[in-house]
Write a structure and sequence with these properties.
It is built from eleven helices and no strands. With 262 residues, it is an all-alpha fold. It has one domain.
Length: 262
């Protein structure tokens, strides 16, 4: 395996499309007075980045169609889930809190507080897609390892989201803590699965010689660990007192056997 050249020009070519998507998403959010759609937009941004790289890459690249199919499956599944979950509901708590902190004028401020940062993050996290298309090196066992890790992550987050949605639909679980299924082994199985998916993409990029795509999964994993629900746990604990016991027994991110209460 030899290193593949990093094309800054091709990477940069995806940024205008992502910023335009952010602008259009922001305009829609103004009409509906809700920024929840940025979640589904995130999936579309990453898919758009992948398509941009693919269109300007060597058509002989052996990983081109494989990665695009995996990316399309990931984006479609997550976008449909997010749209379905938020349909007919108000803004997610994190966006509602952000709106309160930045009023008056949040409608305008959300462009640079929510939508443009999402575009910039998608641009960085898309690096493994660029790396996977960067050479015509033959596929290797490293590609199979990447697809396997991607599949594990995809199934993990898919089942985690399904289990949580089913739990929430049951009126008997109102105010209860989800600590069943995959949620018994980690407090954030969906985020763990998401990280595995993008590390899988990076292994495929590595097989193509795109080792330089490493910042993509590192940044995404950092987001999963710090900038998402993990930072809201104190608030959850205030709203659901039994959550404190769940925190003591269950790993925050990596799946593991539950600990005994002390």
């Amino acid at each position: 395996m030899t290193a593949a050249a990093f094309s800054f020009e091709l990477w940069l070519a995806a940024l205008p499309a992502l910023l335009v998507a952010a602008l259009l998403g922001w305009l829609v959010s103004l009409a509906v007075k809700n920024v929840n759609l940025v979640g589904a937009l995130w999936c579309l941004m990453l898919f758009a980045a992948g398509v941009t790289y693919a269109l300007d890459s060597d058509p002989r690249a052996p990983r081109l169609s494989l990665v695009l199919w995996l990316l399309a499956l990931w984006a479609a599944r997550l976008a449909v889930y997010l749209v379905t979950r938020n349909a007919g509901k108000g803004e997610e708590r994190r966006y509602g809190d952000l709106r309160v902190r930045h009023e008056p004028g949040f409608a305008f401020k959300s462009l640079y507080l929510v939508f443009v940062p999402q575009a910039l993050l998608a641009w960085v996290i898309s690096l493994p897609l660029l790396g996977a298309f960067a050479s015509i090196q033959a596929t290797s066992p490293l590609d199979y390892a990447g697809v396997t890790l991607w599949a594990i992550g995809f199934l993990f987050e898919t089942f985690a989201d399904w289990q949580l949605a089913r739990f929430r639909r049951d009126p008997a679980n109102a105010g209860a803590v989800m600590d069943r299924g995959l949620w018994r082994f980690t407090r954030h199985p969906n985020y763990f699965g998401e990280a595995c998916t993008w590390w899988g993409f990076w292994l495929i990029a590595l097989a193509a010689g795109g080792w330089w795509a490493l910042p993509g999964p590192i940044v995404l994993t950092g987001l999963m660990l710090r900038a998402s629900r993990l930072r809201q746990e104190n608030d959850i604990g205030n709203r659901r007192p039994q959550y404190a016991d769940y925190v003591l027994k269950t790993n925050a991110f990596f799946p593991a056997r539950r600990r005994k209460s002390t």
